[in-house]
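WARN retry 2 of 3 for item q-0093 after timeout on previous attempt; input resubmitted unchanged.
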Amino acid sequence: MMIMTRYALLLLLAFASLQLLCFAADDDVVFYDSFEESFDGRWIVSDKDDYKGVWKHSKSEGHDDYGLLVSEMAKKYAIVKELDEAVNLKDGTTVLQFETRLQGGLECGGAYLKYLRPQDAGWKPKEFDNESPYSIMFGPDKCGATNKLHFILKHKNPKSGEYIEHHLKYPPSVPSDKLTHVYTAILKPDNEVSILIDGEEKKKASFLSAEDFEPPLIPSKTIPDPDDKKPEDWDERAKIPDPDAVKPEDWDEDAPMEIEDEEAVKPESWLDDEPEEIDDPEATKPEDWDDEEDGEWEAPKIENPQCEIAPGCGEWKRPMKRNPAYKGKWSPPLIDNPSYKGIWKPQEIPNPNYFELEKPDFDPIAAIGIEIWTMQDGILFDNILIAKNDKVAESYRETTWKPKFEVEKEKQKAEDEAADSARLAGFQRKVFDVLYKVADIPFLSKYKHQILDLIEHAETQPNLTIGVLVSIVPRVEKKPEVAKTSNGEGSSGEKAEEAEKEEAAAAPRRRRRDN
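OK item q-0093 returned
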């Protein structure tokens, strides 16, 4: 009885703990959309004329899981979801996470999200476009040499009131396959941000470090004085022509760079009377050629074959050679400039927009928007999450992303292996076709049955293809035994001569390799 009571108590405590964890997890989830239900009525598509791309509620290829699909190529897309309550990024940890699958690849376009400021910043859902003010932009972007996972913070300068885009330096690149990937940005209370791809940290940065963001959030204390002007007598030339230098008397500026080689002699077999090109003797006038409309027909020219076997054709001219007297235009040598002052720079003055910052002054997030231009279709967004706990985001990755990814990875692996096998089979078929042709070569007739046996054996075991190629060569090139005379006699010279003749007739000539 006591054992049962203790067991029941343990179960009760475990259940209570699980409930507390679940409630805590629910409290930490600020926003989540799995797109199992249609986005109609929940997300708002922009009415702006530029955004003609059609969004669709569609299944991910090979899954029963739904997502938000970019359905057309070479279009602009804009859609937005208002949050029930704005998210304060200044308190504690905030996690931004979503999945994308580039089902058609991504040659040129974006697949990023914009986390928008409240509408009092000057935007409306139906008019959502690239000018709508955001706090953070995060996600893949690829086109040409650009391949990066964007993280951009728009931060207000408290002195100037201007919002500046601060780009994460050296962001990670985007996976190039067509599998589902999950992207995570963890904004931490210690001013750090961690960027994860598929749960693996790819980049860690500090919002307040000039090494991590461009331009830095905290401006420099000084700036170049915009009113400072370079003095007129400021000399920036490190070297100057030597004013005392004089051109040597024997310096001939008019001497040509090249002259005729007077020692050259025309080759004896030079064909003076042969033109370098002749009419193509095999060319014929087309039947539909009209002399009145097309003019007199002339055969196309080809290189004169006589010139290929001779040193040259036509009028012989002496070749040119470098003129030993050539010096070119004279210029005085350079010397150190005694008046050199260095490269002028304006003086530094205090930066009127400088401010110190202990923490970024994040604007709250009031909506999530997708505003992209892409040349590819098939981009699928799914499982968009905003949470206040990175463990919650990890649990979502494990339950929503990872099972799909493992299935897709195994399928991709099988397809790659099948493609490799098909390529190998195609190569082997070509090898066998060549070997069958080799077997039919007349001077290999005495080895034909041996070659065919090897080929047929290899076709039943394709992995032996290379072995067959190796084994055929020595069989073909093996020297035949010297035939004995009818009486078993013969001089050594006669036998050697007979062997050489038989070898020359039987063994194939190796092909010369053209480089």
